Amino acid sequence: MRVAALISGGKDSCYNMLQCVSAGHSIVALANLMPHTHVPDELDSYMYQTVGHQAVDLYAEAMDVPLYRRTIEGSSLHTGREYSQTEGDEVEDLYQLLKLVKEKEHVEAVSVGAILSDYQRVRVENVCARLQLQPLAYLWRRDQAELLREIISSGLQALLIKVAAYGLDPERHLGKSLAEMEAYLHELSEKYGVHICGEGGEYETFTVDCPLFKKKIVIDSMETVIHSADAFDTYSSLHTESEIFAR
């Protein structure tokens, strides 16, 4: 099938694209929702990862496929277990984005990197049903330790660009690769119940290389932004300046 991939820049959306290709599908377009320029780097959203959104444009060049982006106009209005079309909800931004991609690229399916969030799954499925698109979520309910090992082994290279959990230190861990962090994430999982793949919001990543990339993303500079220094309520992110290079 012709597939539009929902991407955030993180490891999960990128690895699910790999799984789509392995299953015989073709990634013909990328789709991303981004915050307004006047709002913080990371939007307070139940649905979307926006930290690192400034570098998402590089994905299109790295993969040589078109990227469709839309500004998030709505907010989290309909927060129940089920979802129905709600004017002003951020889910409707996803509907409008995928509607455009379907019209322009004639896609039949959508790649979705959801692992554990029923909230996200229900809403993506609602949008896909309304547009008669097939959601492809190969990571759904996978064992997280096994999945992280698989992601690293696939050749996908992703760096931590946000930490928000006890035991994750911005000075030590921001900018580290998943391969460098794997053993420590297992340790945090055993000690504190941290989700190894960050499904509890413990960390976010940005993918700089993967087997689908024809070019590699290189980070030129990094700046740590501390949003909360409380040991029990830490939240720090990495602002990066990136560019792209041929292999």
TrEMBL record:
InterPro entries: Diphthami_syn_dom, DPH6/MJ0570, Rossmann-like_a/b/a_fold
Matching SUPFAM superfamilies: Adenine nucleotide alpha hydrolases-like (SSF52402)
Pathway noted in the entry: Protein modification; peptidyl-diphthamide biosynthesis
Root EC class: ligase
Keyword Magnesium assigned: no
Catalytic activity, EC: 6.3.1.14
Catalytic activity: diphthine-[translation elongation factor 2] + NH4(+) + ATP = diphthamide-[translation elongation factor 2] + AMP + diphosphate + H(+)
CDD domains per UniProt: AANH_PF0828-like (cd01994)
Keyword Ligase: yes
Entry GO MF terms: ATP binding; diphthine-ammonia ligase activity
Biological process annotations from GO: protein histidyl modification to diphthamide
This protein's UniProt keywords: ATP-binding, Ligase, Nucleotide-binding
Domain Diphthamide synthase residues, every copy: 1-228
Function: Amidase that catalyzes the last step of diphthamide biosynthesis using ammonium and ATP.
NCBIfam families: MJ0570_dom
Family to which the UniProt record says this protein belongs: Belongs to the Diphthine--ammonia ligase family.
Name of the molecule in the record: Diphthine--ammonia ligase
UniProt organism field: Sinocyclocheilus rhinocerous
